[in-house]
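User: Some background: our group keeps a shared notebook of sequences we're curious about, and every so often someone picks one and asks for a predicted structure to add to the entry. Today it's my turn. The entry only has the sequence so far, pasted here. Could you supply the structure so I can complete it?
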Amino acid sequence: MPALLPIIPPEKNPRCCRPHPDGQGNPSGASAALTIQALADWRIGSSFRRFSMGTLAACMITASLGMGALAQDLNQLKAGHYVIKEIGCTGGGSAASLTFDGRNLSGHYQVCRTDPISGTRFRSTCIESQGLDRRTIDQINADPDKTVIEQSIVVRSPNEVVVDGVVYGLCSQ
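Assistant: Of course. Here's the predicted structure to add to the notebook entry:
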């Protein structure tokens, strides 16, 4: 069984609460006590600590950039009619369907303007519209009864999109 690491109060820890020679540092030592203390007691060389922390930081940055890139590629989605994958194209769609016009993702009986916020988050501003009375983006902006929602949108492929965790597949263009 591995030995338990001793807990050293921050004021008695020589690696904590001291300023950096260049004037930088963490006077309270709160985060330093949580990160450096555990690694210091492992008796692992400092170069390994720097490597492992650097590798972890690089992986986290790469993962977040990858998700952002997926979300920003909304324009890679094919224009057309999308239905929840579990229902399928023969299920009729209706309330379980979305329409992508090449720029905006709209729900059933709606016309929406879809704007990126950050990462996978998008804001959809929508108004009711159906049949021959299809509205335009200018009408969306001017309508006092518009609905505004924020949602997560991730494009998996040109034929598949995930909206707030629900997978939609392309049925017709």
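Suggested note for the entry: Residues 78-172 form one domain. The first strand starts at residue 80 and ends at 84.
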